[in-house]
Amino acid sequence: MRVTGTVAIVTGGGAGIGAAIARALAAGGASVVVADLAEDSAVAVASSIGDKAVGMGGDVSDPAVIDALVARAEKEFGPVDLYVANAGTAAGMGVDTPDDLWDIALNVNVLAHVRAARALVPGWLERGSGYFLSTASAAGLLTQIGSATYSVSKHAAVGFAEWMSVTYGDRGIAVSCLCPMGVNTALLNSGFETDQPGASVAASAVTQAGAVLEPDDVARVVMEAIDDERFLILPHPEVLEMYRRKGSDYGRWIGGMRKYRRALESGQ
């Protein structure tokens, strides 16, 4: 896919990876609707891009908000070609996490993707083209030490992206799944700031596993992957080897992750 002349929606676009992707898409010739729970942030990013972007606020796990984003895109620029389901949350932590926080994690990290696909796939099938880009996490391929909610919801996001690609990949709809490790964003820097047991371990598990990239670095990799219509986008290439080790000897991988968890906990 070439982004020049396309219309994109980027959720979680008010900062971090989403903002960097929105700017990269616009620089590549796309028109972009920037969406974020914080409307001021979305509008600020869109304003920094210029006439090729507009900003909107809202909870992108809400089907009504998704419909409003699509309608705004169509009104301002035309039919949506690319949907970047990037909004994410680190809500919750361990097995004692209450159901309301599980609901937030699953709604934002997974069901927001499902609901966006529900709104867009029928039109894409009629047109014979469309692109769905899901931001999951390396935690969706591996795990997130310290946070059950993040690990489970990101695994589900990867699973939904896989299903989308298998189901619609032969019918003109491209799907990519972005799975970075540490990125210098508020989600990493403050998302695990809580007094719940395991919170500091969850953050350390990411920052000590590999390099913490800048959002612009991730956006560059994303743009290359869109050009190739590559399914799995790994800004940290080492994640692929970690994933291979997990698949080749699951028991050994579990043991290694337990050892890593113990080391992190002993260092707190």
Automatic annotation (TrEMBL):
State if Chaperone is listed as a keyword: no
Spell out the PROSITE patterns in the cross-references: ADH_SHORT
Family the entry assigns: Belongs to the short-chain dehydrogenases/reductases (SDR) family.
Drop me one GO molecular function for this one.
oxidoreductase activity
Q: What is this protein called?
A: Short chain dehydrogenase/reductase
Q: Which SUPFAM superfamilies match?
A: NAD(P)-binding Rossmann-fold domains
What keyword terms does UniProt attach to this protein?
Oxidoreductase
Name the PANTHER family for this protein: 5-KETO-D-GLUCONATE 5-REDUCTASE, ALCOHOL DEHYDROGENASE, PUTATIVE (AFU_ORTHOLOGUE AFUA_3G03445)-RELATED
Pfam assignment, any one = adh_short
Q: Which domain of life is it from?
A: Bacteria
